[in-house]
Each structure stands twice: as C-alpha cells, then as structure tokens.
Amino acid sequence: MSKTIDVFMFIDALGWEILQRHSFLEQELPYRYSVRMQFGYSSTAIPTILSGRPPQEHKHLSFYYYAPEKSPFKIFKYLPLKYLPSRIFDRWRVRHLLSKILARYYGFTGYFEMYSMPYNWLPFLDYIEKNDIFVPRGLAPVANLADVLQQAGVPGHISNWRLSEEENIARLGALLDEGQIRFAFLYTAALDGLLHMHVREPEIIQRKLDWYAEHIRGLMARMKQHYDQFSFTVISDHGMTPLTGTVDLKGRIDALGLRYGVDYVAVYDATMARFWFLRPEGRERIFPLLEEVPGGRILSAAEKKHYGIDFADHMYGEEILLLPPGVQIAPSNMGLKALPGMHGFAPEDRDSYAACLSTAEPEIPPQWVGDYFRLMTERIDRVRSSREAKVSTEINKQR
Question: Which of 163, 247, 281, 349 could form a disulfide with 325 if both were Cys (CB 3.0 to 4.6 A apart)?
Fold first, then answer.
C-alpha cells in the first residue's frame, strides 16, 4: 500500500488579486481558485479555516468585545497608565511588552495584543483569543483541525504559530525526511506584514513570493523522496487593499461629548467600528453621525446573517459600521496611523478575495475560506481509511 502525504500551507494575505499581478508556481500548482474571505480579520478567518464554521458558531470575530462583568482587565481601573506620557506608553514596543506580561499573568496561550486600545477602556472589554486555537480543544466546544487529527489517529503536524516562517518550514522539512507524518498544516504569516507596508511595491512582493516558491519546491522534493504520493495545497485567508483615504471616526464621536462606558462603548477596528449603546442618548447622537460617513454602511440584520456574524447577544456590537474599500479608521484601536495596505473590508471587494492553489484537483472547489476545512478533513479521512484497511488486511493475514 502506497505511503501518501497531504500538506496544506497557509500563507497569510496571499490574495487572488495579488496572484493575478505576480508569478507564483503556476506549473507546480495548476489548480487555482479565487476564494471568498470571511468577514473580518485574521482573528476570525483563521478560526473559520481551522473549524469550517462561521463566527457565530466558533465565536471569534474581532479580538475585543463589550463584557465588563467578565473583563480580565479590571486591574486597569486602578493603574495610572492613562496619566503617563503617551509618547512612551503608547509606543508599540512598550505595549507589546505589556501585552506579553499580561498574557503570562492571565495564562493566555493564544495570540494577545493590546494594540492601541486606550488603557481606561480595557475594563469594559473582554478578549476572545485567550486560548491557542491550533491545539486540541482550542476552539471548544467547536472541533478544530487538531481535534480532527487527534480523533482520526492520523500522524500529523501543525506548525507552531509563534515560530518564524524559516523555523516552521525547517521543522516540516525535517519531519518529511523522517517519512512518518501523513498530514501537515504549515503556518507562514510574514507576507501579511510585508503587504501592510509594501502593497504598492511589486518588486518587493515578487521577491517574497519567489522566496516562498523556492522553499515550496524544496519541500516537494523531499516529499517525492520519502513518499509514494503527495499533494501540496497553498491556502490564504484574505487579500490586501491599498490605502485610499482615512476617517477620524473616534475624533468625531469624542466631539459629541458623550461618556465612554456610560452612554456607549465602541471598538474602532481598522476598517469597521462596533458600538454598544448603554443609554438612549448614545444611540440618538451616534447613529446619525455613522450614517454620514462617506461610502460607509451600517450592516443590516440580513447582512450580518449573510456574513455569519449575527450574534443573538450582539457580542461584537449592536451596530457595525463598515468602511468602503481602501478607507481606514485612523487613529484606530489597531494602530494610531493608517497603513499603506489593510484587509477587513467587504468580502465582495476584489482585493479581499483569498486564494487556493494545489497540485490536486478537488472534487468540489472551495468557494469560502471555511471550505478549506472540508478539503483538509477529506484528506485526513482518506489516510485514516487506508490505515484502517491496512490493519484489517494484516489481521486477516494472521488468521
């Protein structure tokens, strides 16, 4: 019985439109599909990819949401951070260090960053990714990829998202040389950061794609050497939209004179703003302002249902304002300045589309990033079935 392996390589932000403008493994990965992204950011796309479920089921959309009664950040009520010099305590490196300290203190094992969230807002908010979503029960009670591998008893490998691309690629290469694993999920995320800063610089992008191509060819060579059959599939979560303008939405709402945490609570993501209204005056004064944002749209109940974000308890906002493609909220709670490129706009926008590239033609091509989970579980089930058949044959021979 032949020994097979299936590798899925996740390349963060490898959008379909980017691939149309650059050369990337056309011969090696001939089956190529444009795939609709999940509404939101990587914070919801990756849980969707790892579970095949929409946000309303796995509960991950953006990182922060209104939940003062269970906020792990109540200590910030008593810390004088908001009175300290912002030129120091709002620097990314300082906040990143504070984030690491907090994560260790609270026992968070998932990805955690405070970004540019005001310190005095944190006691009103909870954070969704407290747990490592790549390990068994990481999305419990929803099953994730690690749960499927574990339950199937298939020897597999899922990259450590904390490691660099080079380390993850080297680790997978070593495992391929051993020839024992039958499935792998390779995590690489550096393209996302590169595109945030260099989305309009094709030479820089092509160099990075060439770097990926070189390493993918190397992995394929090792797979050919140690396995009888293999498939290699590249998947992504979204594309990248170039900056066309900014809106100081927070400044406009601050000018209304309402009280944060009394009249309303808001989270300003880079491409959308989410609101909870604690008093009627908050809604009465904020809602008309949102309607005046050029090109923006307040998501309807039907749109929330279509995007899989219709939380019955309004977990991620009673109202969500989505900005037009290319326009960023600046400053936002994700960063004080707009970036040259951003994702998280409408999934229907052409720059938002993700991509799936493979050596093997799927029976049903993926249309939405959650469909990757089906592709992966089908490959795992195939290995499991072949292993069970092999064991059964060996038992019959012994009889």
Answer: 349
DSSP state of 285: H
How many degrees, rounded to 5, is the angle at CA 246 between CA 241 and CA 252? 140
List residues bridging with 5 in a β-sheet.
230
Q: Quick one: what percent of the chain has pLDDT higher than 90?
A: 89
Number of domains in the chain: 3
The tens digit of pLDDT for each residue in 62-105 reads 999 999 999 999 988 877 766 666 666 677 788 889 899 999 99
Residue 363 has pLDDT above 70, yes or no: yes
Same domain, yes or no: 224 and 143: yes
Tokens of 260: 């944060």
d(CA 346, CA 353): 10
Beta bridge partners of 266: 275
Q: Which of 91, 108, 127 is the last residue of a domain?
A: 127
Pair 203, 330 in one domain: no
The three-class DSSP label of residue 297 is: strand
Give the burial class of 274: count Cβ atoms within 10 A of its Cβ; 0-12 exposed, 13-18 middle, 19 or more buried.
Answer: buried
Torsion of CA 295, 298, 299, 301, to 10 degrees: -140
Residue 140: CA count within 13 A, CB half-sphere: 8
Judge if 252 and 381 occupy the same domain. no
Quote the CA–CA distance of 29 and 387 in Å, as a whole number: 27
Structural domain boundaries, residue 106: 64-127
Residues 247/293, Cβ–Cβ less than 8 Å: yes
Neighbours of 105 (CB within 10 A): 10
Indicate the SS3 state at residue 120. Answer: helix
Q: What are 232's strand-pairing partners?
A: 7
Whole-angstrom distance, CA of residue 145 vs CA of residue 78? 40
Q: Pick the closest to residue 331 from 27, 118, 96 (CA basis).
A: 118
The separation between CA 225 and the C-alpha centre of its own chain, rounded to angstroms, equals 33
> What is the domain-level CATH number for residue 208?
3.40.720.10
Q: Which tokens in the block code for residue 152?
A: 């199937």
Burial of 294 (0-12, 13-18, 19+ CB in 10 A): exposed
Say what the pTM is. Answer: 0.94
Q: Which residues of 153-187 are buried (b: 16+ CB within 10 A; e: fewer)?
A: ebebbbbebeeebeebbebbbebbeeeebbbbbbb
Distance CA 227, CA 220 (A): 10
- Looking at the domain assignment, is residue 144 inside a domain? yes
